[in-house]
Amino acid sequence: MATLPIPLPYLMFDDSPRAEFLGGVRAELPLLLGVVPFGLIFGVLGLAAGLPGWAVVLSSSLIFAGSSQVVFAQLWGGATPPPVMVATVGVVNLRHLLYSAAVADYLRDLPWRWKLLLAYLLTDEAFAAAIGRLRDGPATAHRHWFLCGTGFTLWSGWQLSTLAGVLLGAAIPESWSLDFSIALTFIALLVLSVHRRSDAWAAIAAAAVVLPALVLPHKLGLLVAAGVGIVFGLLMRRFDGKKP
Amino acid sequence: MLLLTMAACGLVTFLIRLSFIAFGHHLPDDPRIEAVLRYVPPAILGALIGPEIFMIGGNLNATPDNPRLWAALVALLVARLTRSVLATIAAGMGALWVVQACLA
Predict the structure, then answer these.
(1) Which of A27, A98, A176, B99 is the right S-S partner for A129, CB 3.0 to 4.6 Å?
(2) DSSP labels for A127-171?
């Protein structure tokens, strides 16, 4: 009798750490199509905003959250007080609370070192690619390796593309207006985050308030506008359909 | 100072991600908090987009000869139709270059 395990993909589910990890890598790869250009652009834009190259690269591992890194670079360029910068980055990343809540049940019995690692890797794209496997796949002992695979792949792509963006940065002429792609990324993410009419109203209210709010001291405009948007969305909630 | 601020931003981001994973059983399970949280992404993105389109070199330009306004509208349309980040960036950049060339 053969002692080597024979892979039988259609009869058996391979839940070895290796198979789960590679499954995560495969699920994440298509998403890198959108992430790598964003990383390149962030590298270029970070330099343009006045950050030194080492800080642009370091922010990708230290903060590791694309849109908030863009905000960080912009606010730093505008000589914002550090407490306001930390608060604004926190609000921009507050949506990760929802991801943390969504994966918490699947990671409950893991040791602390796993919880710390997977929390660090929990980005928009790593979450999006892994939640299907965690929620709908078999509840096996090594399924957290799948999230590790999506997170590690995204992390690597983000570090390398940021570094490439910093190295290329000086070579891209300003007349290409590449900084506009940041606004375009936000527009795409916004459309993906709008599920109900009141979501759209929250965005419209925040966008309308932010321009006059820019005169507020200490660059508090962004926080104030986001707050107004949230309140307006809550007020408009009653006009949403019956859909959950 | 830059390094310190960046580290603080990283720590806050990490703690947000760790919150429910590590302390889920201690955190309140309140539908009102959930309702507020759901409006954070659209509100913060709306607030981020406004200045990117209308503030050019520190000056407000909300008139029809602002090419970024037209490119943003094209991007919004493409984003709604395709729901693809990449297609939105490609269409928006293309639209910006075309409008800039027409206005030049």
Answers:
(1) A27
(2) HHHHHHHHHHS---TTTHHHHHHHHHHHHHHHHHHHHHHHHHHTT
Contact B50 A210 (CB under 8 A): yes
| Spatial separation of the C-alpha atoms in residues A221 and A213, rounded to whole Å | 5
Note the pTM of the prediction, 2 decimals.
Answer: 0.82
Instruction: Encode pLDDT of A75-93 as tens digits.
Output: 898 888 999 999 999 998 9
How many domains, in total, are found in chain B?
A: 2
Co-location of B103 and B54 in the same domain: yes
pLDDT, tens digit (0-9, with 9 covering 90-100), for A40-75: 888 988 888 889 999 999 999 999 998 899 889 988
Same domain, B22 and B55: no
B11 in the same domain as B49:
no
In chain A, what are the domain boundaries? 17-179, 194-244
The answer to whether residue A96 neighbours chain B at the CB level (below 8 Å) is yes
Closest chain B C-alpha to A153 CA, distance in angstroms? 18
- Surface of B (84-103) touching A: CB under 8 A: 84-86, 88-89, 92-93, 96-97, 100
| pLDDT tens column, A124-148 | 889 989 998 998 888 889 999 999 9
- One domain, residues B64 and B104: yes
Chain A residues inside the 8 Å CB shell of B48: 67, 70-71, 92, 183, 186, 222
SS3 A220: coil
Q: Does A234 touch chain B (CB under 8 A)?
A: yes
* A51 in B contact zone (CB under 8 Å): yes
Phi and psi dihedrals of A84, rounded to 5?
-70, -35
B56 lies in which domain range?
39-104
